Fold this sequence. Notes:
There is one protein chain. The chain contains 7 helices and 4 strands; from the N terminus they run H-H-H-H-E-H-E-H-E-E-H. It has about 160 residues and is an alpha+beta fold. It folds into 2 domains: about 1-65; about 65-160, Glutaredoxin, CATH 3.40.30.10. Helix 2 packs antiparallel against helix 3 and helix 5 crosses helix 7. GO terms for molecular function: electron transfer activity.
Amino acid sequence: MAWCEAHFDSSIAFILMMRAWILPMLLVLCGSVLAAGLIASETPGTAAVPSLVFVLLAVVNSPLIFPRSIDALEAQRRSAVDGQPVVFWRPGCTYCMRLRIRLGRSARQVHWVDIWRDPAAAAAVRAANGGNETVPTVIVAGRPHTNPDPAWVREQLSRPA
């Protein structure tokens, strides 16, 4: 019985981890199908451009563009020490990508938490947003801010701890 529960828990964790890669994999697949169609229609030179566009979209929508995520408890601990914001995000979220890109290099100062990888983080986001998993949710000084302006988040980074 314990083996079944452990196997089930590890299977669920694997599925949650892979969920972040579904959109990027679909984008690469669509780009490949489009390129194959262009090659089959005897226009192989034009197949490279859409392939590169779809690969670029896959990278932008993948977890690769974000700094490494940590779990919610570790993010809260680190934030209490250094005073930096905690950002709850999920792969594929356009508002999360906007925040990440607009923060630029300073995004590495923020503590990123992927709500699809951490059930406690998803619960914290639901608690802050009336039961919805609305991201990005930024926690600054213990107060949640849903989808704040990236300029405001940058200001929070420059404040002394």
